[in-house]
Design a protein that fits this description.
256 residues, mainly alpha, 12 helices
Length: 256
């Protein structure tokens, strides 16, 4: 059991971050289920980095919130290896092509970036830096740090409720191996912990807002993926992670 849990944790870092994992890990049902169950741990690492960077920069330097936001966003993208940004760009190119589902999936598989993908990337990058710059001086570190954790929880939930758009590919392969009951129980446990932390340190309004926004956005995104792509792919999951972070951080602007 311990080996399966450790294997799942290493898989989570191997496939959802740029943190090197120099070990061959079996990708069977227990390990893949553990990978999705422990995916929020990747968000916890990002949260720890975010908190450390903000505290260190504020306590030891005189640089402004805009520079801190730039450093923070850059570190996040370094930790994920730009995988989610790549998925966001591919999603932008595919969706704004206004083609049918099959053609959109074909465009999504093209490694080249198009004009629409570039525009979506610019909006996401600039938007995230600006929002973080507004939040850093005014919002608690707990609220800021909770965002990447909630985003990874959403990725796991999306992997349960959404069908794969393609029969081949990693997303479809992993989904066939998930033990749904185990993963749902793990996400329920994560939700209770995150809600309790937000309630204690940030208040009921922030905790409730995060819950409602994450649930509505996840199910709405699943429906959008079904309508426009016939399901989810790895790129669409990456786009979800970037979009959820921007949504939740943007929502915190109302609590300044």
């Amino acid at each position: 059991m311990a080996n399966q849990t450790l294997g799942g944790l290493l898989l989570a870092f191997q496939f959802f971050s740029s943190i090197p994992v120099h070990k061959e890990i079996p990708m069977k049902k227990p390990q893949v289920t553990a990978m999705y169950s422990l995916l929020p741990v990747v968000g916890l690492v990002m949260a720890a980095v975010a908190s450390a960077v903000i505290w260190l920069m504020q306590e030891t330097t005189d640089i402004g919130p805009l520079m801190i936001a730039f450093l923070l966003a850059s570190l996040f993208w370094a930790i994920t290896g730009g995988l989610h940004l790549d998925g966001l760009a591919d999603t932008g190119d595919a969706y704004f092509s206004y083609q049918n589902k099959d053609k959109r999936l074909e465009i999504m598989g093209d490694p080249r970036i198009g004009a629409f993908g570039a525009m979506v990337l610019v909006f996401a990058i600039v938007g995230k830096i600006i929002v973080l710059a507004e939040l850093i001086p005014s919002v608690s570190l707990i609220a800021l740090a909770a965002v990447p954790v909630v985003s990874r929880m959403g990725l796991s939930v999306l992997s349960i409720i959404a069908k794969p758009a393609k029969t081949e590919g990693l997303a479809a392969y992993f989904q066939r191996l998930i033990d749904y009951r185990t993963l749902m129980a793990a996400m329920a446990a994560w939700s209770l912990v995150v809600l309790a932390v937000l309630f204690i340190f940030c208040g009921w309004a922030v905790a409730l807002s995060f819950s409602v926004a994450a649930i509505i956005a996840t199910f709405a995104y699943k429906k959008w993926c079904d309508k426009n792509f016939g399901g989810v792919t790895g790129d669409l999951l990456g786009a979800y992670a970037e979009g959820m972070e921007l949504l939740l951080w943007g929502m915190l602007l109302f609590f300044i």
